[in-house]
Amino acid sequence: MQSLAKRIVNNFAQKELQPMAYSEPTISTPLLAKSSSSSDSEGSLTPNQSPPKELQCCIPNTLTGGLQHKSLAILSGHIGSVSCLALCGEFILSASHGKDIIAWQQPDLRRFTKFGHGDGSVKALVTVGNRVFSAHQDGRIRVWKVSRSSENIFRLTATLPTTKDYLCKFMKQSNYVQTRRNHRKLWIEHADSISCLAVYGGVIYSGSWDKTLKVWRVADLRCLESIRAHDDAINGLVAHEGLVYSASADGKIKVWEKGRSMHCLKRVLEGRRDVSWNAVIICDEGRLVYGGGSDGRVMGWERDVGRDNWTLVCDVRTHEMAVLCLCSMGEFVCSGSADKSIGVWRRESGGGLWRVGIIRGPEGPVKCLQASCYSVGEGFMLYSGGLDKSLRVWWVPKEYSGARRVE
């Protein structure tokens, strides 16, 4: 890990990338090109710039300074819009609505391989050990084994539900459920697109537009449970220490607790009326949970473990349009929006958010974000993907001036 971080830092010192080994152009921005105006022109706030109108009323005029982020690269090559991202060892994986998954090798950000074409639009990715799980629009989860010893580094090994699971259940009528008018399916099947995945403790969770939450065991890929979780599509999932948070278009974030045999509903976190939840994340070892909504706001709750209760501690207008994705890195929270911007925030001890800056540059709504676990210099790397079909790479400093608290 340290050697990889060192290689990344060394690459930052270069003014230009070396020629690509393949013919397809994939990087259009030099790594940390020494341009005094590069960060400012892409939307970071400086003392001479004004914040968006929606946030001006919330930011004291006496505060100055801003985030000095850097645009590292713009990676192209996807057929459709980039829908999800995941870290897999030395690779950053990006998947698209064009049914393809690309593995980019760090630190030089070169395209290593492309796989998954033709298996349905990819909606979500998670990695577990040497396996990658991809969720698709066709209601299936595909399992890819990662092996350097194989000619095919990312090899498809299974599709969920597995054939074995089907054979064990298809003969018994009680295993079928009504999905919509005149349609019946096995309870182990999703009846619509799988929109999100989460993994914790040897279990994979899948959320779908069919309003169900399903639980899969990683060891044998068996579906253990199906929960009719919401009244509308499930858009986001996160799991930690026996608790699962599901965010839905019905305006609710539900907290599910893992029991001995099945999950039970523990709490319902509600936002504003008629607002869809598009993303959910947890921070500070599960003490804080944040949801991103269709109204451009981020709301946060603090969990009191002793009282087993959640208290609203944050309600912030972060964007002009809907928040589509969230990610966290240490004390930072990043939000991607339909307004084509990325918000960078710092958490305070009580769960509130201080605005560090706004990153502009994407040419379409930002659909997914992924922060790297590697420290690079005095900051971290942030990956973003969206409707402009590109994967953008940013460097975000951990030291900054002029953070703004937004109420």
TrEMBL record:
Species lineage: Eukaryota, Viridiplantae, Streptophyta, Embryophyta, Tracheophyta
Transmembrane segments: none
Ranges of compositional bias, category Low complexity: 32-45
Record PROSITE patterns: WD_REPEATS_2 (PS50082)
Keyword Repeat included in the entry's annotation: yes
SMART domains, sorted: WD40
Annotated organism of origin: Elaeis guineensis var. tenera (Oil palm)
Annotated stretches, region: Disordered: 32-54
WD repeat residues: 227-257
Pfam families recorded: WD40
PANTHER family, A to Z: F-BOX AND WD40 DOMAIN PROTEIN (PTHR22844), OS01G0946100 PROTEIN (PTHR22844:SF340)
Protein name, entry field: Protein JINGUBANG
Keyword set, alphabetical order: Repeat, WD repeat
